[in-house]
Write a structure and sequence with these properties.
43% strand; 6 strands
């Protein structure tokens, strides 16, 4: 019998998008790719909100943006890659006043 022990986590989130002008998020991720940022210049905080809970439960942690490809399609200019975990989870709550286009995180 083979046993396996879990000794750590290295979460990641894949991303892929068609570039839209005027999207601050798209422009920020594209700038990491286009300017070949490394180290702390390629790290961004991401807040994940569990909308299935009565109270808005949220987790924030930092991820490194790891670009993979760009311009892969003929219909639109695309970017893709992976966000790889860079920090520990910080548990808290998130609120929004603009239908979750932006949010405020509090521990």
């Amino acid at each position: 019998m083979t046993q396996t022990d879990l000794v750590g986590y290295s979460p990641s989130i894949s991303y892929s998008f068609d570039m839209y002008s005027g999207s601050a998020v798209h422009e920020d991720i594209a700038s990491v790719t286009d300017n070949e940022y490394v180290g702390d210049d390629a790290v961004r905080p991401i807040v994940m909100v569990d909308m299935t809970k009565e109270k808005d439960n949220a987790v924030m942690r930092s991820f490194s943006i790891i670009p993979d490809a760009e311009g892969d399609t003929t219909e639109a200019y695309t970017y893709s890659g992976v966000f790889k975990v860079k920090s520990e989870k910080v548990f808290g709550t998130a609120t929004s006043t603009d239908n979750w286009l932006t949010c405020t995180f509090a521990e």
